[in-house]
Write a structure and sequence with these properties.
The chain has 7 helices and no strands. With about 220 residues, the chain is mainly alpha-helical. The longest helix is centred in the N-terminal third of the chain and has 35 residues. Pfam families: PhoU.
Amino acid sequence: MLRTQFEEELEKLDNQFYAMGNEVLGQINRTVRAFVSHDRELAQEVIADDTDVNEYEMKLEKKSLEIIALQQPVSQDLRTVITILKASSDLERMGDHAVSIAKATIRMKGEMRIKSVEEAISKMGREVKNFVEETLNLYLNGNADQAYEVAMMDETINEYFDQIRDLATEEIKANPELVITGRDYFEVISYLERIGDYAKNICEWVVYFETGKIVEM
């Protein structure tokens, strides 16, 4: 394969990865909106659209492994392929957690709700969406130094997790009938927190792409 053709293949991988990222970003946005608005139809859409995310990952994995096997890339080219291969797996897991939140939306039909907790979950969801969006922008245009800055957004996600957990716990203590509702809230914020962890993973892969070093942020 000529160098120009090889570069075109890498560019296609880049574009597919970014398209997958935008699909996952949309999933996160819709699943949080569905949860806090109790919109079960929208939650069903999130679940149904997960096949698109899975197909993106399978295509990216297949193409990445094909390039490694047939072209035997080295140095920066190899890091490009590995970064996409690993980061697409992180995106797929984000999509899985978005689906889990959608399933919680459907499962909570008829349960008592806690308005203050759901308002906080909505804010946490926006922060998670912003984090993933910044991570995708970092992948396109960023560098290793910026990766560390973007990764710090995960601290805000963790703070939301702690605050909402404590808030829900206090509400349940005041009204034990909310214990089942609380269980679902705890699950949802855990899913959002994990999405943040996977976004941070992508920041680590950007550092690897830029420097060749595997780091843990």
